[in-house]
Amino acid sequence: MSAIRRYHAASWDEGIVYELGAPGRRGVVPPAPWAPSREGSAFPAALRRTAEADLPELAEYEVRRHFTHLSQQTMGMIGISLFGTCTMKHNPTVNEQITARPEVAAVHPRQDPATYQGLLGIVHDLEQELCNLSGMSAYSFQPGGGADAAYLNAVVTRAYHASRGELSQRTQIVTTQQAHPATRLRRRPRASR
Q: In this model, does residue 162 exceed pLDDT 90?
């Protein structure tokens, strides 16, 4: 077995994201989403924005540098692009080293369960700790990334509302177009003029 190298994380004097950038800077400019008129809006008045969102204005390189510095302080996200890092940006590199070890990475779903009881014990103990911390009754480690986790969240939310007999009332999910790269909003056709 190969030993895991000692690692000393970088220490940056990194400010919070609101201290970076400048007015007018943009990394990605998403297309304007379809939105109903305020008068005929299906959104309750309490959910409608009354002022522009207070968001930092940064160029793409500033966002990349900021999250790279943060990740290096938590042992890094070396070799991972900014896209799709919603679940990965703060994972320490040491986690990647451990999961790449053959006793973890080479486990096959059809192998004899007696050969990976230690690994199952680790997963079971982690689930128990997460349940203790959160008050949840169970955890799933099946979602492989952000899109899987977003789908799982929607499925769990649907089951919750179904258990309360409210499923027929809960027919929409309100989200932003940039909530996750896998999220696609259906656009309504524009009225002809």
A: yes
Check: CB of residue 53 under 8 Å from CB of residue 87. Answer: no
φ, ψ for residue 59, nearest 5 deg: -80, 160
pLDDT at 174: 75
In this structure, what token pair is assigned to residue 5?
Answer: 């190298």
In terms of Cβ atoms closer than 10 Å to its own Cβ (0-12, 13-18, 19+), residue 150 is: buried
Nearest to 90 by CA among 77, 103, 105, 108: 77
93-123: per-residue pLDDT in tens?
677 778 888 888 888 888 898 988 988 898 8
Residues 87, 103: contact at Cβ < 8 Å?
no
Which residue did the predictor score with more confidence, 189 or 67?
A: 67
Give the CA-trace dihedral at 12, 26, 153, 93, to 10 degrees: -30
Q: Indicate the SS3 state at residue 149.
A: helix
In whole angstroms, what is the distance from residue 122 CA to residue 146 CA? Answer: 23
Distance between CA atoms of residues 88 and 82, nearest Å: 9
How many angstroms separate the CA atoms of 66 and 15, rounded?
A: 8
Q: Which residues have C-beta within 8 Å of that of residue 36, sequence separation ≥ 6?
A: 42, 43
**Residues 142, 145, 148: CA angle, nearest 5 degrees:** 65
pLDDT, tens digit (0-9, with 9 covering 90-100), for 43-86: 777 877 788 788 889 998 898 888 888 777 765 445 544 444 45
